[in-house]
Amino acid sequence: MCRRAHVLGLDQVVKLSSTMHAMKVVVCVKQIPDPADPGALDPETRTLKRDVKLILDESDSYGVEMALQLVEAAGEGEVTLVSMAPNNERSGLATALAMGAASATLVSDPALVGTDALTTAKILAATIKDQGADLVIAGSESSDGYTGTVPEQIAAVLDLPSVTAAKSVEVDGSNILVKRQTDAGYDSIICPMPAVISVTAGVVEPRYPSFKGIMAAKSKPVEEKLAADLGFEEDQVGWSGSGQEIVEVAEAPTREAGDIIEDDGEAHVKIVEFLESLKVI
Amino acid sequence: MYQWSDEHNMLRQAMKDFIAKELVPIRDELEHGNLPPYGLLRKLFATFGMDEMASASFEKRIAYDKAIEAGEVEPSEPKRGEGMDPAFSLIPTIELCRQSPGLVTAMGVSVGLTASAINSKGTIAQRERWVPQLQTMEKIGAWAITEPNSGSDAFGSMLASARRDGDEYVLNGSKTFITNGPYADTIVFICKLDEGNDRKDRKVLSFVLDAGMDGLVQSKPLRKMGMHSSPTGELFLNDVRVGRDRLIGESEEVKKGGRDGAKSTFQQERSGVAAMSLGIIEECLDLSVAYAKDREQFGQRIGDFQLIQQKLAMMEVARMNVQNLVFRTIELAAANTAMTFAEACAMKLYSAQQATAVALEAVQLHGGNGYMAEYHVEQLARDAKVLQIYAGTDEIQTVAIAKDLLK
Ligand SMILES: Cc1cc2nc3c(=O)[nH]c(=O)nc-3n(C[C@H](O)[C@H](O)[C@H](O)COP(=O)(O)OP(=O)(O)OC[C@H]3O[C@@H](n4cnc5c(N)ncnc54)[C@H](O)[C@@H]3O)c2cc1C
Ligand SMILES: Cc1cc2nc3c(=O)[nH]c(=O)nc-3n(C[C@H](O)[C@H](O)[C@H](O)COP(=O)(O)OP(=O)(O)OC[C@H]3O[C@@H](n4cnc5c(N)ncnc54)[C@H](O)[C@@H]3O)c2cc1C
């Protein structure tokens, strides 16, 4: 996915004196039904009902925090938000604005019901395109839809380099240095800006919105757009524009009860036999 | 119609998250160990920028008051809706009280009583000297009026005294049940000026003391029934010498002999108690509903028994009423008005009684578990009781309400 990014060996990472420059970071934030009270699937469309109040996806609070830290480190610049959500939902945006983002663009349009991940990426890309961002940050995967494809699709649509699973990002002149999480540890990546990064959950500690931040959020600008404002025809979005369809939804299998081994003095033998049968030892 | 706004709900959620992450894991040490509450409170202030906001508003106010003193501006009444949304200061109280009401007692006495007492009656120099660190919780404050033989009759039986000695005063006396007493950096000491006259005619003066002054002893925390996360202690003053710079207002000529200052402090305390009660009631109700749905006896959940349903309904009625009283104080504060003294007494009396009644019913509904420290209602029932005793007992509130009706 990192077409223009170079994977460096660890020893090649040299810290260059970073030159300060105003950073403009756009963060994609998804507003989702509260996972503590997720509501139900619509049996007809087999998608999550979204008529409840939506909140900021926790996965995206890490992106917001990382963006705020990057702008603070640069000393100058701002964080703006983009979100596509039903029913003109703003609650999740309000949370991210209270954390410190400066403004937001919200794409909300009844025509967008049924939009799949690729079209979502196209809509978001069209929103981001003219913002002059140095960096676009998204979560690695949302907590509800979970496809983990939107960030790379945004990068492809905008023809920008993309780094996934970032655990830390540092600006170095016109490049970013990214530590990319892997099974074994991390890759160190140097990548030119502008770029799209997806951030792994838990890598930074999202700040609490402060008293001042909460009070200020109300008066921060949120620009609302319809699909048509972004140049999309009705048949390009929503159910008709989707290249994918959810054909079946099944219950997750319930966990089976485990075997209980009573310790009659020989339990260790049985445990070893069991582990051998699984070929884990 | 007043309701919690989206901003209020956002703040409540953020407070809940902070409390779950920072307070709940150390609650046992705060309640049953020797961990003082101040570290956590400072963290709360810094995290939500409450310290920064308090400093900014203090500086603005001081600059304004200096300009008035210099004759540069005319004093004017503050405009409606100016300043911080009053709900923002009550929400932390409500949320903290769901877990550890003692934290609010410790915070309220330091920031609410002590800092306010100096800020409302002190000279500009005194306010600049003590208030900023108290408002940010960098320094801990105590406010001392109660004595072993002087509680409800705070002014009548007060023995603590100040004697003039040249340009200075010599202070003596014992204070007890003093919140933050064991750890306070800054103490407001309330006493009577001894001019050799009859004790009931003596002026009431307030002095600011710093920990470590010669002749001042701060006791260890006293053991008590509840509010364990709020340290309570005794103060002993033996010929403590202070200059006039420590006499609040730097004048012996305080309105109504100093009783006014203490009285306005009482009024503020009383609205705080309503918010504390709401937190306790909300938590007890939530825990009780969950338990009533979960616990089974006689082959059914206990929530199906009408006697249990009655308890839940009574708790809900209390929650609604106390929440409405809290909303009323917010609306009045936003409009820059306040309840009458008798109304504030009525609110404090009702809220405190309901908090205690609800918490005890919550213990009852939990059966044996409710009596065990493992279940949170046990702590809340012990904590709630003091709301009927401090900041003026139930009986004293009742007397004040009746006095106002019959005047
Ligand atoms: C099982 C299932 C059910 C679905 N149900 C519905 C439904 O009921 N209604 C409906 O409208 N869609 C539904 N979708 C579609 C899905 O929500 C969209 O495709 C979604 O916008 C993008 O997919 P994702 O959540 O998997 O994103 P991912 O690729 O997992 O998200 C990664 C990151 O991309 C960014 N991002 C993703 N979506 C948005 C967005 N909308 N706004 C801003 N940033 C975003 C965020 O930063 C996010 O952390 C469903 C999809 C699936 C697979
Ligand atoms: C946890 C805790 C923290 C405290 N923190 C502080 C603090 O920070 N600073 C401080 O100065 N004080 C503090 N106090 C003291 C508190 O304000 C007093 O305990 C309270 O005012 C009652 O006074 P008392 O204890 O002397 O009771 P008393 O006045 O002796 O009352 C005993 C009983 O007689 C009743 N009674 C008294 N007078 C009348 C009357 N006229 N009519 C009818 N009944 C009457 C009372 O209601 C009560 O039931 C604290 C107390 C506690 C328990």
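qc> Residues 216 and 237 of chain B are 5 Å apart (CA to CA).
qc> done
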